[in-house]
């Protein structure tokens, strides 16, 4: 069994449908109407020990709600979660020792206590021995510059300082599973780099990490697996590099030549490339499939036609793929099949095959 297991996990929020104003409030008292929001919709998710998983989706997709369900903060409407075989909603204390949660938008530090006291309370709550605690604090200080913050009360921390202290609070008990929900929001670039390095160390030590972020730089180079949620449903679950290879194949060479270049001559030597005018008559942009044409071949092709003054190459990014999934341009193969094919998939193993297709 995987370390983190969600089966058909569903959360429906119900909120009062109150017309505005006093009259509306009175009418609501009489009629009591509610609107329902399915925030997480029959999510199946298995995370093996030691995996680093990126969990991304547009605003309101259901990411934070999933994290709250997986950590036992919220009760599911239906479906279930197991962490190491335990149900977090039922075995709160046992599971709390095994997981760490960081919400970038919310603090778990005590507002009126200095950071040192907040961390000490957590140390005692989790029963961390003094030697281990000191070692962890030293490490947090090395990566997060924690010492400077220890005497500052929660309410006086800037956003970036608060995030660093909150990270320490989430990890003080050495959890084996860590959920990081927007962990670099509001951090300046140098702190972001340090925090990302820290995450890589955690992963390399075997900690299981689920990372939610709108900043895809948090994800690239850190998570091998990408899960995309949209409107509460998982629309993609697979290997991040494989997605890039499949759907972010193009590179663009922007090239500045000494004399004008006839685009047809470039097309003739680079079959399949798309040649367009650049920012000035002496600049061209050449889009090519990086698996069919190497960057060297593309540059050499232009050099054979005119002297090259300058060039740069734009690499494909996961941003572009994710943007296309969000916009509906790319969809899960399984979804497409379901719409066009009513036959059950008799051979299907039930495992997501990590395929996205253009509709
Ligand atoms: N306590 C709540 N009561 C009612 N609706 C809620 C509650 N919490 C979340 N929702 C709704 O559930 C949906 C999913 O919210 P959630 O916070 O999980 O999204 P998210 O993917 O984390 O979004 P973001 O990227 O903006 O943080 C949203 O429509 C949100 O308004």
TrEMBL record:
Q: Where's it mainly located?
A: membrane
Matching entries from InterPro entries are given as: AAA+_ATPase, ABC_transporter-like_ATP-bd, ABC_transporter-like_CS, ABC_transporter_ATP-binding, P-loop_NTPase
Q: Where is this region: Disordered?
A: 334-359
Q: Which GO terms describe its molecular function?
A: ATP binding; ATP hydrolysis activity
* Residue ranges annotated for the ABC transporter domain, each copy included: 4-256
Q: Which GO terms describe its cellular component?
A: plasma membrane
Alphabetically sorted, this entry's keywords are: Antibiotic resistance, ATP-binding, Nucleotide-binding, Transport
Q: Which Gene3D superfamilies match?
A: P-loop containing nucleotide triphosphate hydrolases (3.40.50.300)
Residue stretches of biased makeup (Acidic residues): 336-350
In its keyword annotation, does this UniProt entry include DNA-binding?
A: no
Listed GO biological process terms:
response to antibiotic
Q: Would the keyword Cell division be found if you checked this record's keyword annotation? A: no
Question: Any idea where this protein resides?
Answer: Cell membrane
One Pfam family, short name: ABC_tran
Name by which UniProt lists this protein: ABC-2 type transport system ATP-binding protein
Q: Which organism is it from?
A: Umezawaea tangerina
Q: What is the lineage of its organism?
A: Bacteria, Bacillati, Actinomycetota, Actinomycetes, Pseudonocardiales
């Amino acid at each position: 069994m995987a370390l983190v297991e969600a089966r058909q996990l569903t959360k429906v929020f119900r909120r009062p449908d109150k017309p505005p104003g006093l009259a509306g409030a009175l009418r609501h008292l009489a009629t009591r109407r509610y609107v329902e929001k399915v925030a997480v919709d029959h999510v199946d998710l298995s995370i093996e020990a030691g995996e680093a998983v990126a969990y991304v989706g547009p605003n309101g997709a259901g990411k934070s709600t999933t994290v709250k369900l997986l950590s036992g903060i919220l009760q599911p409407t239906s479906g279930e979660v197991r962490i190491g075989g335990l149900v977090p909603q039922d075995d709160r204390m046992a599971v709390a020792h095994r997981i760490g949660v960081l919400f970038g938008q919310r603090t778990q530090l005590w507002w009126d206590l200095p950071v040192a006291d907040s961390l000490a309370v957590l140390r005692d709550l989790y029963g961390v021995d003094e030697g281990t605690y000191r070692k962890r604090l030293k490490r947090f200080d090395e990566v997060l510059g924690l010492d400077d913050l220890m005497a500052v009360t929660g309410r006086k921390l800037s956003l970036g300082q608060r995030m660093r202290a909150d990270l320490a609070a989430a990890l003080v008990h050495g959890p084996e599973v860590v959920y990081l929900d927007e962990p670099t929001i509001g951090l300046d670039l140098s702190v972001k780099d340090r925090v990302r390095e820290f995450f890589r160390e955690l992963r390399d030590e075997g900690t299981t990490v689920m990372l939610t972020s709108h900043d895809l730089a948090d994800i690239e180079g850190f998570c091998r697996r990408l899960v995309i949620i949209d409107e509460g449903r998982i629309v993609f679950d697979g290997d991040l590099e494989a997605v890039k290879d499949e759907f972010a194949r193009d590179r663009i060479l922007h090239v500045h030549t000494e004399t004008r270049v006839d685009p047809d001559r470039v097309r003739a030597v680079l079959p399949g490339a798309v040649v367009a005018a650049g920012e000035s008559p002496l600049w061209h942009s050449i889009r090519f499939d990086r698996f069919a044409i190497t960057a060297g071949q593309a540059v050499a092709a232009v050099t054979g036609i005119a002297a090259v003054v300058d060039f740069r190459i734009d690499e494909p990014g996961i941003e572009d793929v994710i943007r296309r999934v969000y916009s509906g341009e790319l969809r899960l193969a399984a979804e497409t099949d379901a719409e066009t094919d009513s036959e059950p998939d008799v051979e299907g193993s039930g495992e997501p095959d990590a395929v996205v297709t253009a509709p």
